[in-house]
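Table 4 source record.
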Amino acid sequence: MFKKLLSSIGIGSATVDTKLAKAQYAQGETVEGVVEIRGGSVEQHIDKIDLALVTTYIREVDDHKFEEKAVLARHKVSDSLTIGPNETKTIPFRFTLPYDTPVTLGSSKVWLQTGLDIQMALDPQDRDYLTIEPHPLVTAFLEAARQLGFRLHHVQCEQAPRHWQRRLPFVQEFEFRPASGAFRGRLDELEAIFFVSEHGVETILEIDRKARGFAGLLAEALDMDETLVRFTYGPNDLASLPQLLANAIHRYS
């Protein structure tokens, strides 16, 4: 009875360890691994085992910024089971990363949180950080921007305006600065948001024109120097992507 009481408050109870096949994945890739449960000093019943894919984003309220957590996906590893004293169980899992999983650049972090649902006990959890690479189509955009002389300056997940929200309450913004090439001196920065799907990428570009003369300075002061452009491309556009991107920016810069 005393051992059961200790177990119910999290002393001598089961522990969990999630082991991934690898730590680096691309958006849309399949994640595989195993959840290893080790029994404590008494037998315990586990109602379920689940995984949560988690990230953080910045939310702004009255000019104050707060970091919020967001669950990108959940995956059930197992229904109810019983783990005996000092017993070890290994359960495999696999799931597909959502296309809108943030890339782990800049301040963006993504982790897999494993939880054991044990009645009347502290919920044992395990946190495993992942390295998320861009989807190949997004990688192609980053390379096209580099060829045009842009340097990736900042990446951050921020709360999205309602009309930009899709499945999640935030978007990941990629901010570029023109370091060389035709757009140096013409643009202050270029920002991009990617909505990846099976068929291609919808990109929202914010083109921040460099102020030129009094009219340009006035436009900049009134935030009229920024233009939003919807830019879409797919696998068949990769060879010409640098030129397509250059044309879109030229049109509005």
